[in-house]
Amino acid sequence: VGQLFPISSSAVFLLIAGPWHVRAGEANPTQGHPGGLSWVHGHWNVPLPTDGNVHGWTWFYFMNEHVLRYMNLRVPRDYDTVPLLLFWGLLLAWLLPWSAYLPQSIASMPWRAVLRMQDPAEEDGTILLLGIAGLLPIAFFSFSTRQEYYVLPALPLLAMLIGRWLDREATATETFAIPESLGTSSLRMHRSAMRSAVVLLAVGSAAALLCAFFLMHASAPEGHEDLAGLLQQNPGDYALSFGHFLDLNARAMGLFRLPLAITGTALFCGTLASWWMRSRYQPHHANLCLLVTAMAFLFAAYLGLNTFSPVLTSKHLADAIQREQRPGELIILNDEYEAGSTLGFYLQRNDIHILHGHSANLWYGSFFTDAPQIFEDDLTLRSRWLTTQRIYLWTAPDKMPKLPTRPYIVAEGGGKMIVSNQPNHY
User: Strands across the sheet with 353-355, in order?
Assistant: First the structure.
């Protein structure tokens, strides 16, 4: 522990990060009497803010977004938590195909030195740092509310740990000219790698069969069929960031035929070639086969994300507004700000108003006395709609509010549309 210089390292960290946090807290102090965490009737109670009675940035950032979120008490309670097995399973999925070698990589860490409280060798110390830093976020969030992306910081560290074990196994195996000359340790590593290769081949074969099933049963897209219309079948799961993936039935998968074909071919052929090469005591070639498999899968994922992009972004809607807008015109989002937040990014505007979206990330700050008045309701929307000021309304077609006059469509796509109270200029 002393080799990590905990005191001086902590001092440098606070010197760099501290001033910004202090200034942020000073710029956004607590207002009024918001109350604090209390134990009432056998349960922890967190009082909700009211106008002018709200905690400042320091409490919200450190207490609400860290301590209370970990305890599942964060306000507002507008999030869901991923089941623990899915949380762990996605870690293996994101590391594929290399995750098959994760157990060996973790087992090869110098745990004996840790248990005996001994100072490890220089290389072992690096391996321990990678392993512990990679496993700590997974263990930490296993006892907390969690989203699937909370595990992402661990992936590069675990990837380096896996790479180190694969390099050792390949070097130990190929050092000997003939398999019979393998030492006990090298033979043990080779057999362990072969077991993982068999597991990978089974997973790759099953994934290829699943891709083939969807390819055979997927419906061909009808004209300009909008993917967003096919991704509205499990609204109860959309609090998870990957919730829409549960909507990918045979009809929706018809829009992903090329990525499916690439994925199925790569996973089967790549894992088969890797197993074959490793069985012939050529681990470097086997690892190269897995590398090609991973690259092909990433390319298929890229193609899939391109198909998803109209659902994930509002850039095409922002471009339509950019062509039309004039100074002084107002943009209103119908729903939570996060649903159309990319409009503000692409248009470089921070004055967007919200209709029926007094919730989520903007909710807490709205109780400050100096908060901008950006929230609209049906009455204020109606009065603004009838003025000479041009209004651009972002909305999902099935959430179109009742408007006093016929709206003009500016743009639509990806399950979203922009309508206006005035006709288009172009």
Answer: 375-376, 353-355, 330-334, 391-395, 416-420, 408-413
Sign of dihedral through CA atoms 419, 421, 423, 424? negative
Q: Which of 200, 197, 177, 175 is nearest to 186 (CA)?
A: 175
For residue 276, pLDDT over 90 is answered with yes
| Token reading at 139 | 């263990």
Contact (CB, 8 A) for 409 and 321: no
Asked if 240 and 256 touch (Cβ cutoff 8 Å), the reply is: no
The alpha-carbon radius of gyration of the chain (Å, integer) is 27
Q: How far apart are the C-alpha atoms of 367 and 371, rounded to whole Å?
A: 7
The two tokens of residue 2 are 């002393």
φ, ψ for residue 385 (rounded to 5)?
Answer: -65, -30
Assign 3-class secondary structure to 384-401.
HHCCCCCEEEEECHHHCC
Angle between helices 84-95 and 154-174 (to 10 degrees): 50
In Å, what is the CA distance from 290 to each residue of 186, 190, 194? 21, 16, 14
H helices then E strands: how many in the chain?
A: 16, 8
How far apart, in Å, are the Cα atoms of 304 and each of 204, 211, 262, 264, 300? 19, 14, 11, 14, 6
The pLDDT tens digits for 336-347 are 888 888 888 999
CA distances for 105 relative to 120, 138, 163, angstroms: 17, 16, 8
Q: How confident is the model at residue 56 (pLDDT cuts 50, 70, 90)?
A: very high
Q: What number of other Cβ atoms are within 10 A of residue 149's Cβ?
A: 12
Would you say 54 and 63 are in contact if contact means Cβ atoms under 8 Å apart? no
- Write out pLDDT tens, residues 94-149: 898 999 999 999 988 877 766 666 666 666 777 888 888 899 989 998 888 888 88
User: Interhelix angle for 184-217 vs 154-174, to 10°?
Assistant: 120
CA-closest candidate to residue 385, choices 332, 417, 421, 348: 421
How many Cβ atoms sit within 10 Å of the Cβ of residue 394?
A: 25
